[in-house]
Write a structure and sequence with these properties.
With 293 residues, the chain is α/β, with parallel strands linked by helices. Helix content is 36%, strand content 14%. The protein has one domain: Thiamin diphosphate (ThDP)-binding fold, Pyr/PP domains (Rossmann fold, 3-Layer(aba) Sandwich).
């Protein structure tokens, strides 16, 4: 069977990611698809630490650190600067966590997409502010424990639903929007290749499990990633030129199996798990309807 994932590596050994880090795999796969002529902007996040201590970096491509709120502005400036130098063949990539995408960085992201810059914004979605101590974000799913949604006598786990930034980008009519998973690297590479081929703004949201934040065994990162898709908790889809396509997994599994691997959900009772199942099924039906329209 021929290899479909590029052999070249643009993330060196010696980075400081945790064992089993989904975000590290996400960056590795994205850069494989983007290639050496890529400039990447990274806001405050785990990936502001993973490359190593300044002036060293584990990345083989130019790297710009930026503030939480300004990633969209940073990639806009990078794009225009490279164009002014005649380097239009360089790719510009934003690589931000859910805090720097769904929350603090949302306004700059939306503005960059609206201006139509030829950039790719990747949200590596580990569903909390992991670098600063596992605080909840708007991308944290209902039912999850975080350090700011503690589970004690009052059972203060997160009660709000997850925000899907990919849905927001579709509503903004961004030319190419996709969701992806490190558990399906071939699909991820295909979507990066499509994004790279399109002139204009692109957005990909990649589910990137976090062992210390999700409380699962470090060896289970790929298993958890696949279960998220197979249980329909994290659907894979893409929106290209106004057409929406939903990936239907050949194998399905129960939501309970997905939740049971993660300590952040161990406090949930049967009724709460049922409410999650109902919400997942409702969203799946909406996505199917969107595909048919």
């Amino acid at each position: 069977m021929p290899l479909t994932i590029p052999k070249e590596e643009y993330v060196n050994q010696g980075h400081t990611a945790c064992a089993g880090c989904g975000a590290a795999l996400a960056m590795r796969y994205v850069l494989k698809g983007m290639g050496p002529k890529t400039a990447v902007a990274i806001p405050a996040s785990c990936w502001a630490i993973i490359p190593g201590e300044y002036p060293y970096t584990a990345l083989k491509v130019p790297l710009l650190y930026t503030t939480f709120a300004s990633t969209g502005a940073a990639i806009s400036g990078l794009r225009e600067g490279l164009n002014a130098q005649g380097k239009e063949d360089y790719n510009v990539l934003a690589f931000a966590g859910d805090g720097g995408t769904a929350d603090i960085g949302l306004q700059a992201l939306s503005a960059a997409m609206e201006r139509g810059h030829d950039v790719l914004f990747v949200m590596y979605d580990n569903e909390a502010y992991m670098n600063t101590g596992i605080q909840r974000s708007s991308s944290t799913p209902y039912g999850a424990w975080t350090t700011t949604t503690p589970v004690g006598l009052k059972r203060n786990f997160k009660k709000e639903k997850k925000k899907y930034v990919s849905d927001l980008m579709i509503a903004q009519n961004v030319p190419y929007v996709a969701t992806a998973s490190i558990g399906y690297p071939e699909d991820l590479e295909r979507k990066v290749a499509i994004a790279k081929s399109i002139k204009g703004p692109k957005f990909i949201q990649i589910l990137s499990p976090c062992p210390p934040g999700w409380y699962y065994n470090t060896a289970d990162t790929i298993k958890v990633s696949r279960l998220a898709v197979e249980s329909k908790v994290f659907p894979l889809y893409e929106f290209k030129s106004g057409k929406f396509t939903l990936f239907k997994p050949s194998k399905t599994t129960s939501i309970a199996d997905y939740l049971s691997l993660q300590g952040r959900f161990k406090h949930l009772n049967d009724e709460e798990i049922k409410s999650i199942e109902e919400a997942v099924e409702e969203r799946w039906k909406l996505l199917l309807k969107k595909e048919q329209n």
